Amino acid sequence: MGLKQKDRNLVKGLVFFTVLCAGVYFGALKLFGDPLRAVGGLVCLYGGVRLALAARTAFLVQAVDPKACGRWAVVTGCTGGLGQEFAHRCASRGMDLVLVSRSRPKLEVLAGELKEKYGVRAVVLIFDFAKTSVAAEELFYGKLLPEFLAAAPISGDVGLLINNVGVGDEAPFAVDEIKVADIADMVKVNCGAIVNMSRAVLPLLKHRRKGAVINVSSGSCAQPSPYLATYASSKAFDLHFSKSCSRECREFGVHVLGIRPYYISGTGLYPNAKPSYNAPAKRDVVEGAFAHLGKYEVSHAWWVHSLMGYIFGTVFEDPIFGAVIERLAKRAKLNGSMLMIQKQARERSMAKNDGMWKPIKEQSAVHLGRLGVKA
To answer: Which end of the chain is more exposed for a tag (fewer CB within 10 A), N or C?
Structure first.
């Protein structure tokens, strides 16, 4: 069996990469005169270049001003939590708002607040991202939303899309404990909404050759998250979509940023309303997102969350360091892995809310019976 063209291209690529690496190594060997010094020199050179590039991005590259891209910002899932804060921060910058969510009363209250406090325009668009049919989605994303953005007062002057809408678990559930309806909602809202909203708005931004998109993911996707598997995986979709979409849109002058914060105070998802380093205020995360827009494809949007992401996603996942840290943490009675953290959260939830967990346990026993297993 002969090699096909793609196979030949792959072989050529491997040969080129091997020759390149050999050339670099022997060049370093000639420079340093010793194999170990050559390896050490290359490692230091690589680390130094990475550090220099990171410093350049952090300190020299300017963030994108979304208002310079257009007068209006479109924000989904904005009647509470991080989405509401995004709306306020956009309005504080003088941007007019298109507020998209399912509750008309809450949207109208928010629109009134923004108009009164910041003197901007705010219009509302009602849509339930979860409880809708394919036909209703085609109508909204394909006709109603584009026509709404084209009509006055917006008239196509959109500079920013913030895909914030999302749904999560009530508690740390195992995969087999999540309801079918909840799975469908998570996939439709966390994955489907970000794609459909981007599909509807990006053609306008690309045509105008300027604009920005912020997609809200979650820190839970930065590493395997037991007992949040479905939610974390749906948020990992958002992050991968953001990176891929960013590279599609870059040549059109459109910047895409995916943010993945961990806990945030004052959102209802964290027990403490008072901000801390671990759970910053909503404003800190939103301002962090704006500060990184146009500089990165992915950001935690808060420096402590970046550190947490490195610890959970890199150190704890290392086959050597992770195992050592987990054992030492157990002896010190600390959480040494995401599994330990979520197990403790699960135990607290079971102790506080027996009414929620009892039907889940009963349903699990019923399902085992259907599988022919006696509980």
So the answer is: N
- Between CA 370 and CA 375 the distance in angstroms is 11
Domain ranges of the chain: 66-302, 316-370
The 3-state DSSP class for residue 75 equals strand
Distance CA 102, CA 106 (A): 9
Q: Which CATH architecture has domain 66-302?
A: 3-Layer(aba) Sandwich (3.40)
Q: Count Cβ atoms below 10 Å from residue 326 Cβ, excluding itself.
A: 16
Global pTM reads 0.90
Cα–chain-centroid distance for residue 296? 13
Is there a contact between 335 and 345 (Cβ–Cβ < 8 Å)?
Answer: no
Taking the CA of residue 137 as centre, how many other CA atoms within 13 Å lie in the half-sphere pointing to its CB? 15
φ, ψ for residue 126 (rounded to 5)?
-90, 125
Report the b/e string of 271-303 with b at 16+ CB within 10 A. eeeebeeebbbbbbbbbbbbebbbbbbbbbbbe
Rg of the chain (C-alpha set): 24
Asked whether the beta carbons of 186 and 234 are under 8 A apart, the reply is yes
